[in-house]
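Q: Sequence in, structure out?
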Amino acid sequence: MSFEKIQNLFKRETKPSQGEKDEEVVDSSRRDFLKKASKAALYAAISASIPKTVEAGLLVGTGKNKPKNSEGLGINISDQIIVRSEKADSQIEAIPEYKRSLERLLLTIPSNESDEYIKNAFFELIAQLPEYTEIELVAKEQNLETIKNIVNELKIENKINYKIFSQDSDHIEAWAQDYGEALKINGQEKFLISGKINNSNSRLDKIDKIRIEKRVEAITDALGKENIEVAKFIFEGGNMTFDEANGYLRVFIGYNDLEFNAFNNGPKKMDLKEVAGIISRNLGGAEVVVMGNHAQEGTFVHIDQSFIILEGKTAIVNQFAKGANPMVRYQHQYYKAQLEKLGYRTIVVENDSDDLELCRSSLNAIPYIDKHSKEKKVIFPVFENEIKKGSINTASKYLKQEDLQGKALNSFAAFKQAGYTPIPARDLVTHAKNGNVHCLSNVLAKMLESRKEMTA
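A: Exactly. Output:
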């Protein structure tokens, strides 16, 4: 089996919207293959694609065999791509997520899911938000009653601005984070969305193109064309995040998004450094750090599932034990090495192969600074196998540290080590669709107010 075919098996799957039969066929074929192929055979094929010098440097266990410094694992990052253009298309201001106060949050309610799924996916996330959070909620008429029932049951005080679509309008998907990024462009607050995908783009298949195009249509209709800025490059919000570095903007972007753009200008692949330069110019001459040096694989296909940037130049990074997809193990060691080279203090959360296969990323989390107390907090997902027996999760009792076990408890400790108050939120269903709480949400910082809050 070719390495490219193996890569295609690990693309992020989403439930097909009504009428998208092509997607259903593709998803079905992937599922059938994975059922027939043993893990051992599949990983053996992947391992054969990795240079032996790389495989020798991978994390080899959990427990006593804790991760060492990335350099000690033989991870060579000399081929990493970091570009900062001297030219800028516009003036950009972006507030890193850890500096935002969670005053406004975009939630997009999936139009192809049951009422039960919607409640299980959004109930606890909404319940754990600060009482001052204003929610921009995008949904179809058919889902409105379910959402209002959740709001009534929780008796929440949050202001909710409903943006309701008709039954026959654009498809809405759950992953609000992937719709785009809140920025200030030339002094005006805008929501940056993905650029146009050319029909000749061979890196994106028909299903990917349909999914991204429908996402762009839906968010433009929901937020209003006057509030939208179209990027000059293709991106998914979960695969791009911001930080500040030496007085300028730093942009982390996942390798897959570079590949998408490299094939968006004709049949010939563009040099990835040239692509990074285009992104840098479009984002005001920001420093663009391309995360990874090969296609993002497994269920952790966006960088917001792999690591989280926090205050104090701290990064918490997922790492994987032996038995997980070898390319994913290497990929995450590479991320850790990149972050350390940039001067970040790294804290590790160890994962096993089941965490990868079932998309259980504790770091797909929402960091914020409480508007009133100024306390640093983070809402992070907890999965069923990480909750002690007998612990309940209702509107009157949410998870606490003593309810947690395994990776959730380790993640709780990692966030505490980084100086944050962890807020566990049980993920009942979204991980089965290859996303967690950060994927479900998009923090729309009020740029001027938030900047004042953070510097006061």
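Residues 206-223 form the longest helix (18 residues).
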